[in-house]
Each structure stands twice: as C-alpha cells, then as structure tokens.
Design a protein that fits this description.
This protein is mainly α. The protein is built from 7 helices and no strands.
Length: about 140
C-alpha cells in the first residue's frame, strides 16, 4: 500500500521541479518592495554592504595569482610589497564593512524590548518579521 503523497510528512519528501519552482517576476518584486516601504533605505544599505563584501572576497585569488605568476617569478619586490599590502588591507576593509553591516542590521531592532501591541507604537519596531507578517497577512 503506497501512502498518499499529498498529505502529512510525504509533502516534504516529494519534489517536483516544475510544480515547485517559484514564479518570480518584476511585478512580484515591485509588490514586495512596496511592503518594504518603511525599511527600503535600511534594506538597500544592507544589500550594498553584502555586495561590497562579496566583491572584496573575489580579489584575494587575483592577488595570489599575480603573486605567483609575476612577483615571485620575476623577483619584483615592489609588486610583492603592494600585493602584501592588498592581502592585509582587503580583509581589514571587509571587516570594517562587516561592522557597518552589523550596525545596519541592528537598526532593525532599535526598541526590541519596548514594543507594544498598540498600533501607534508598533512603528518603533523595525523587525524583518514585521515585513514578513505584513506580507503574510495580505497574501493569506
């Protein structure tokens, strides 16, 4: 006897690539972005720091390649010094941007312990869960 694949835990076991693929469009993105209206600057700041850190993480392999192919092979001490400076500076810059990212992330929770359920004072809560709750309330 085969279990019914449409209910219970079997819904987590099955996977249909065509059926389970999310349908993401620009209209959906604009609609979700509209719900994030009070959070837009903070979200853009966080995305900027994420992209900056990601971009910086792509640089060290290029520095290593240049170190091996050019600086060591040709005995270029000036290039070696610049590459060493880059290998020290990139992680430091990435860490500084990471601190900024954590600061921006903390702005979502400024009054975490003081929020109450009164509508006039709920605006003090900059929680990402609020955005999720707003979307869930509208969609369901």
């Amino acid at each position: 006897m085969q279990p019914d694949l449409g209910t219970g835990w079997w819904t987590y076991v099955r996977y249909d690539q065509e059926r389970d693929r999310p349908k993401i469009s620009w209209d959906l993105f604009r609609r979700v972005w509209g719900y994030a209206k009070p959070y837009q600057l903070k979200v853009l700041g966080l995305l900027t720091t994420i992209f900056a850190i990601t971009g910086l993480s792509l640089i060290p392999p290029l520095l290593y390649r240049d170190l091996i192919d050019n600086a060591i092979a040709n005995g270029d001490k000036t290039r070696l010094n610049w590459l060493a400076l880059g290998m020290i500076g990139i992680p430091l810059l990435s860490a500084a941007i990471g601190f900024g990212q954590r600061y921006l992330s903390a702005l979502f929770y400024p009054h975490q312990n003081r929020c109450v359920d009164e509508p006039a004072q709920q605006r003090c809560c900059w929680r990402p869960e609020r955005l999720n709750a707003d979307l869930h309330q509208h969609c369901y």
